Amino acid sequence: MIYFSTNKSSIPVSIKKATLEGLAPDGGLYIPSEIPRFSPEEITLLEGASFNNIAFAIAKKFIDGSVPPDQLSDIIESCYTFDTPIVQLDQNTFVEELFCGPTLAFKDYGARFLARLTGYFAAEEEKLITVLVATSGDTGSAVAYGFQGIANTRVVLLYPSGKVSRLQEQQLTTAGSNVHALEVEGDFDDCQRMVKQAFVDPDLNKSLTLTSANSINISRLIPQSFYYAWATMQLKERFGLHDPLFSVPSGNYGNLTAGVLAKRMGFPIGHFIAASNANDSVTRYIEEGRYEPRPTITTLSTAMDVGNPSNFARLRYFYHNDHDSMAKDITGMSVSDEETIATIRSVHERFDYVMDPHTAVAYRALERFRGNESNAEKAGIALSTAHPVKFLDAIESALGKKIAIPPNLTELMEKKKSATLISSEYRELASFLNRLDE
Ligand SMILES: *Cc1c(COP(=O)(O)O)cnc(C)c1O
Hints:
- By secondary structure, the chain is α/β, with parallel strands linked by helices.
- The protein has a domain at 83-106 and 223-399: Rossmann fold (3-Layer(aba) Sandwich).
- It has 20 helices and 13 strands.
- Helix 5 (107-124) packs across helix 6 (138-147).
- It starts with a strand and ends with a helix.
- The chain binds pyridoxal-5'-phosphate (PLP).
- Pyridoxal-5'-phosphate binds at residues 105, 107, 138, 215, 249-255, 303-304, 358, 385-386.
């Protein structure tokens, strides 16, 4: 399998190069030259398989020849040491809980796989890879815990001082070992600017092999297809339901793009709902056919506050830039903060189930979609991308009651923060990086 750029002016590369580079040299996003197919017989053979066995079957097709099967299987086993529960709310409504990993959000699925694959390829190249990330919260914590203890890699993450929640800060600053946190006296844009400058600094790149771990990396995308495949198999085996709808709470559209990948591979998926908050550039595109990115608006579902989503280029590419064929597979729905709060309340009342604001956006969009009579009977899965305790304030004020904190979180909150405070001047980052090897 080879990978080429959505901009088409870079030479095609192996999965190794695509993983270690992240972004293609022409500024495009890497995509597989063809999407591997599972025949109906192959899918039948996967019935009864564990999550990890399904993950392995998919990964093998994408990584064909670059990682031997035994090693690939070890990588998968060490990535997904947690469950992926599918919870039934009523006869044909389900929530797939993607928040059981170490950082309590679905980004663990992509970050853990990327980390292990990067470690494997770095060892093969006998290199030490330095992963540099600017984060406003969730991505950084998944990357920190994903790369924690992975040989041949180390992580330097930059976060804006005072602009992340206390839980996020604990997740960013306690991974230890090969993970270094830099607390920047500035905002997220400063962090991003500094990281970008490091990537083009010739002196620095002479001594260090830098890579990014953001959501455009193809090796973060591939593993996100695993849980779509798993859900279709589980719905069939446990409930006798076929061709489910997936409602996907979307920000940068990596999650939804991975779903489209799973459908193209042949897994039986009925339809997608792209669920956005007030940042609705993509959902409006799907409804109206015009793409007009707008400045980002702050909402309750903060991880989806993206005005110009980076994975949209890949999504469009998969539909050959054809709006109508995208709209056949995907319906766009935007959900307001008021509706989000009302949904958290009504779901709690009806099902005694607590969902976080991102999940509530997906659930509400699913409800609205099935409000149309011709869709009412369809089986639907809302993807739950974060554990409600990650958004304690919003949930507790919506429900007017305290919710229980899981024990591993209490432990995390007690860990000692370890971060280096720097100003937002680039030379402070450069000098930190230069001193890493001392
Ligand atoms: C990142 C994130 C999203 C958005 O996912 P995309 O792949 O960027 O569309 C949704 N919910 C949560 C909790 C997230 O952390």
